[in-house]
Amino acid sequence: MSVIYILLTISIIIAIVFFFAFIMAVKNGQYDDSYTPSVRMLFDDELVKETPKKADSTKKD
């Protein structure tokens, strides 16, 4: 039974260390995307379809 307590304690400590390492990596900009903004202008823009306006039924000719 004492082995379970030891393994649980060690696993919690390792989880805290990995969480701290992840937070530090995010704060230091490890996951910032510096490549995509430089090539964004090379991608085709999506075409925006305009919805046709309904004919005004009250319009008199």
UniProtKB/TrEMBL annotation:
This is Cbb3-type cytochrome oxidase assembly protein CcoS. It comes from Lacinutrix neustonica. The lineage of its organism: Bacteria, Pseudomonadati, Bacteroidota, Flavobacteriia, Flavobacteriales. Pfam families: FixS (PF03597). It comes from the Bacteria. The chain crosses the membrane at residues 6-26. Keywords: Membrane, Transmembrane, Transmembrane helix. PANTHER family: FIXS PROTEIN (PTHR41532:SF1). InterPro entries: Cyt_oxidase_maturation_cbb3.
